[in-house]
Structures are given as C-alpha cells and as structure tokens.
Amino acid sequence: MKxxxxxxxxxxxxxxxxxxxxxxPSLSEMIDQARQDWLYAQQFYNDVTDNDLIEYAxxxxxxxxxxxxxxxxxxxxxxxxxxxxxxxxxx
Length: 91
Fold this sequence. Notes:
Elements: H1 2-15, H2 27-47, H3 51-78, H4 80-89
C-alpha cells in the first residue's frame, strides 16, 4: 500500500493536486463488475433485434466472459477467492 500511496503522490505532483486520484479497485470489486458486464452482455444479446448488432453482441459476450474467467482464475491463484466468498457469506 505504501507503493500505491507513493505513486498517488507522484501523480498529484505531476498532474496537479486538483485532479482527483481514483483508487485502484480491489480484485473482488473487479470480479463483481466483470460479472455484471457479462450478464449485461447476455441480456443485450437477448434484446438485439438489428441483424448488424447480433455479431457484436456475440463478441461482447465472449470478451466479457473471458475477462470474468481470467479474474476468477487470478483470484484462485492468489488465494483471494476464499476471501471473496467468505466476505459474501459474512465469515
């Protein structure tokens, strides 16, 4: 965390302190967002009526699914998946 704060200070110095520094989301937040994006892509595919958008919707499903699966794999690899599920269960 010290490293992240140092980078934030340097960014504030370089770009001016008026610019707000957005915090880096946690892995669990990124997984939640990726899952929501994947569900949105599936719903978009189901709602598409224009033939030109069907291919795009299928591509969107594939890419959002891969992003979600990648993040879950990273969480499993780092052991964070247990932490994420235990937080969901209130443990």
